[in-house]
Amino acid sequence: MLRNSIVRKYYLSSTGLICNLVLLSRSRNSHNSVGFKLEFQVQKLLIVRRLPAEWEKQSGVQLTWPHKDSDWSNIFDSVEKNFIEIAKEITEVEKLLIVVKDKNVDNLKALLNKSKANLKNITFANANANDVWARDHAAISVYENGNPLLLKFNFNGWGEKYEHNFDNDIHKQLLKNKIFQAHKTEFIDLVLEGGSIESDGNGTILTTTSCLLNKNRNPNLTKVEIENKLKKYLGIERILWIDNGLIEGDDTDGHIDTLARFCSNEKIAYVGPDNQKAQNFPSLKDMEKELSELKTIKGNSYNLVKLPSPSSKYDQDGNKLPATYANFLILNTVVLVPTYDDPSDNEALEIIQDCFKERKVIGIDCQSLIIQRGSLHCVTMHYPRGVIF
Length: 389
Known about the structure:
With 389 residues, the chain is α/β, with parallel strands linked by helices. The chain has two domains: 2-44, no CATH class; 49-384, L-arginine/glycine Amidinotransferase, Chain A (5-stranded Propeller). Helices cover 22% and strands 31% of the residues. It has nine helices and 22 strands. The chain has helices at 76-93, 106-114, 134-137, 157-160, 165-176, 209-212, 223-234, 281-293, 345-355, and strands at residues 2-12, 17-26, 36-44, 49-50, 58-64, 95-100, 122-126, 140-144, 147-154, 184-191, 197-199, 204-208, 238-242, 260-262, 267-271, 303-307, 313-314, 320-321, 329-330, 334-339, 360-365, 380-384. A four-stranded mixed beta sheet has the order 4-8-9-10, with helices on one face. A four-stranded mixed beta sheet has the order 7-6-5-22. It is globular.
């Protein structure tokens, strides 16, 4: 019979395994001589990650403030006014982290105070930046075993199109400034932009092949390898790939947040094909067909909600600008929707309001933002409940 057993537990953190070393000794009165038995019990550590949906409870939002030493110099006053309006609406319902190049923020505070923004809900952090597109250069938040984990992927200026050295380093600067110190950050050697993925919070992401499989992002990885990495880091189970869809003037290679957005686990709002004479009509038509063939995790077809497209917008050189109503931002109690002083604005607001009946929909004129090829969702990054900054 067993006289005693000694169990020593070894944690192999690098492999995610637990080994139990069991030492068993037999009684000296047994027929067998004294012996020892080693038993190795190996079990997988239970590490569960989940990428929350944007409509889940949030702690706050990040804005990376524009500065004059950038492409915004010619329209700085106009775009700063746009940012102030966005900041005001965010601070009405949750906290706001403003990343600003200038160490002296007194003037900015005065402008925000004048706009009736809630300064008590604002944290200012100093960091150098190339540009304002926080959705793509900020960390992506997941929950790991119920706790927030910040994932900092590489940002390469949308395929080396633009300078990005400062933007890719912002999160490190924030950590040095004791922002996000309460949370673990995992730095991942993979190019991934927040605007390129859309999560339903239930293990499914929606994305485009034109962006994630573009050779200007991760040229040495196959589609299967990219899928495996996304599943590993984000904790997702399904990737719904969209092969079509184009917003004219877009320079992100087809970010999903300009084309189609989850409004719930079963509903997708998307940019529909409106104008048969438009250059992107065939691509949007094909995307519509793709979306109609997608299935929810329960095997049902998605409830598709078609968004209108604003009339064509151009910069001063006659280049088409990527105006889209799909680039809305979901907050705790409101949804901020980009508008463009366009006849379709009210229709878009009404449709999105119907998608989010429990939230108030607020339109924000984003004509300044699209001059640099982005819109409202692009300049923000939301952080889910539990993230402290």
